[in-house]
Batch of 3 targets.
Target 1
Amino acid sequence: MNKLLKPLVFLVVMILVCSVIVRVSNSSRTLEEYALENPEIAYATPQKTEEPSAVPTESPTEEPTAEPDDVIYYEKGFFYCPIPMAVKEKITGVSYPATDSLISYDDLYYMQVLYYDFNGEVQTGELICNRSLAPDFAEIFYELYRNEYQIEKIRLIDEYGGDDTASMIDNNTSCFNYRVVDGSNSLSKHAMGCAIDINPFYNPYVVFNKDGSGENYISPPGSEIYADRSKDFPYKIDENDLCYKLFKEHGFTWGGDWNSCKDYQHFQKVVE
């Protein structure tokens, strides 16, 4: 069987070669010319198949989990929307009380912004704020981003179990947290989503002695060295700081302007 197969294959090849020669001779072209013009036939060279380009996998934090019609984009990477269900489940019983809240979910917005961290790398941050202030926050954080203003972290306070002190120690920038003012029984403006703390470890909360003899209380622990605002150090918020200027332009008040205490990290705005 093998002896018959070899001559048969040889015969087929010869027929094909002769056919090519006849075609070439009829068109007054040499085999070399034909081969150059038709390499895929003459040399049976397989054509390269391009591999499909890889489709990048987007980070789940880059797109909202709300319905598309509910999302308001300020710029790429900057949007706000009603609080998505997954976020509601995350914050309920932590930063948002399970019962007896004076603010509803509908009064709050979930936000994502881009920012430069302390290594100069772009990160995605999450905030929850009063819905009426979302446009302000979007514009302010976009301008901070454009100017490469450095913020160490922007995470929901729920990443710290709703513990404001733990968040401050980690120098986390945060907004909404249904809590009272430190050292009092009064609800904080944070409980309404109307206040934000920026780089809090470097811009502490300072309460003075009533007799004016000095500081009575500094928070967070470990930030005492930054209570002396006569010193020059990185990430310090003062009247010359871009963050201060932007929040003031948008009608926010600064805790650093208060008298009985100073909250250098804190900006708040009255909601009508």
Note: Confidence is low (pLDDT under 50) at residues 24-32, 39-62.
Target 2
Amino acid sequence: MNTQIINGRVINPANQLDAQVDVFIRDDIIIAIGEQPVDFVADNTIDATGLIVCPGLVDLNARLREPGQEHTATIETETRAAVAGGITSLCIPPDTDPVIDTAAVVELIEDRAKKSARAMVYTVGALTQKLQGDLLTEMAALTAAGCIGFSNGLSPIKNSLILRRAMEYAASLNLKIFINAADPWLYQGCAHEGAVSARLGLDGIPETAETIAISRDLLLIEQTGVNAHFHNLSCGKSVELIKQAQQQGLNVTADVSAHHLHLSEHDIGNYDSLSHVMPPLRSIRDREQLQQGLRDGVISAISSHHQPLDNDAKLGPFADTTPGISGLETLLPLTMKLVEDDELSLSQAIASLTNQPAAILGIEAGQLKVGAQADICIIDPNAHNECQPAQFISAGKNSPFANWLFNSQVRHTLFKGNSVFS
């Protein structure tokens, strides 16, 4: 089928394109941008007047709860939510049930994602068997099965020798590892260690729980030469550590969650469990430094860190509730809000959701160019709407952004040239 997108403002940060031009698609491939090919007859026309046309978004970290927790969410429900948020490529960490430490689990996930046929679902394999931090997985076999990198999820590897061996194995195969930096002995609370946690009587997690782990990991990265990415930075000092490592020539990148760019420890309010996340929401100063890290390019991607939860997971005393935010459908509007607040340029914002996370994953996505797969997000930058988590397509309604006013909304999402959301 031939599709044309006309009159839109096409933004492709990968080649600094920002112009009102038309896009022409044949089947699942972009065949022209700008002038219409002489033999092209459109079967479908999308009028994007007043809209932004950009690459489909790439989310570095989203838990879809399948396999193992289908009672909470499934690949079917969450890919529907993803494309409603303009996301056409998403990456899932290994802490499913069973853990992604065998080729059979990788194949199961890929098969269910293909049946959903709405977005590309990429798997990150486990660094250690069962994520127990003892025995390394067969990374070569998992890569052959389709894994695009390796992580120990939210289970830190306590033994530095085992972590070193895992990095050496990954480096020998030129594989990327993904790190959630957390010192297991200091990560014993439920909120940022500071004035708010003290006032509320909550056990605090100091910033050193993150910075000590990052420091150790960077030393091992330097020693082994592995290509590494740090997920979900939460502290200003963490940004500085990553910046220094990059200046020294280490091959390290980092991302931040959309919610850490907008919320702080003060949003816990009166024990609001919807703001219970890991790593915890930190100080206003930390939030400002994370935003600065984005502007400086130290942090190159914004991710949803999507964790859909049952309603009862957020009931009870704050410390006993399950941390996590349902973030697929707020990733784009929260990022665009940074543009409205003059924290990022429009090009920086879109790059942090498209070509830059795609480059981290090493995938062919996040770009609008001739010959590329037609994964496209069309955004209305002037759509005023109020966030209502109860109306999320995601099975997880756990979001602290209820009643926030957003001025950007996805109008159309195309995946492989097909309309998957409108």
Note: The longest strand covers residues 409-415.
Target 3
Amino acid sequence: MSESARQDTPEQAEFRQFCRQWLQANKPSAPSVRLPLSPLEIMTRPQLSYLQDWQKSAYEAGLVGCDYPPEFGGGGRSDCQRVANDEMIRARTPYFPNVIGLGMAAPTVLHHGQQALKERLLPRLFSGEDIWCQGFSEPGAGSDLASVQTFAERKGGKWVINGHKVWTSLAHFAEWMILLLRTDKSHKYDGLSYFVVPIRAALGNGVTVRPLIKITGETGFNEVIFENLEVDDSYRLDELGKGWQVAMTTLLHERGAGELQTPRAGGMKSKATHATNTANLIELARSTPRNGRPAADDPLIRDRIMQLVIREQGLAQNQRRARVSALQDHPLRLQLQNKLLASEITQDTAALAVEIEGASASLYLGDDNAPASGQWPMAYMNSYGMTIAAGTSEVQRNILGERVLGLAKSK
């Protein structure tokens, strides 16, 4: 019996059994197209369609939005989303494509949206029929998010939006965007407001999406340009000038620190593609020759792998602690620490894998001679996005230092 199962309430145990049986009978067949490492790298319609079909199937079975109120399309359960997520990971199912919608937009809309907006948006978000993206970063406002300059001017019951967002994952497929913008230029924080914007319907008529090509050759993220886009005031979340507070709800969930209050609406981890964990790293070291012997026989390589195993296990135990509110000495510490460590462990694991592969790491995806089908170099290049997303590692350390440890602000 797993650790999770031993801690289940009777309701959770019954639901776990249902999830396990349903997944055994309904796990999707292998895709006919190559899936990227994460939903943030989805590039093609066939990739998206396969994953959307899977998310809709899981939602209709009750494995998505489990803990959200039924009137908003949820399952009305209590702390059962983690159970569904556990079982999907155990069954090695594909990830869901609507990662931004499930992890960030759903809790933000739930906490700050009007009743009619929740009823309209959340069911199609859970089902994956409407893909969401996040409009936060700008060319001149990345780490200093409060300096965003995308501006909305009020005209009667409408708002006219002009501005430029960048690094916008999934914008090329998104129907909706969660959008932080400025409604008052005289105040840095109090001048910010928060909207949900239907960008797909406005393509070519106030919204332009331009793909950005990454070092991997993938185009998972984009820049989005607003030119006199009109949206109704009913799309605003919370009060005018409260955008910074709403954005903090989004960021807390993006960083994993909001899940004790509002769990994620669905599973986002993938076992369908190459997992960048130490178990696969060990397998790579055993199968890769180095000076005529397996790389795993090199004592220096073995030591470095064990250091990563220790870090990975420490992170796993911290993630268990983070799910128990009574064990937390500060509401931000473990979750923000876990975000920081998870992204850096993933990067360091992929970096060692590339070193083990040596010259073979230059072989691209699909090359018959590429170790692990070329997934490790791809994982290493993609890892830099994860140490930047949701605030860079430097920003995370500043938050932990200032807000958790009480250190003086850095200059």
Note: The longest helix spans residues 333-357.
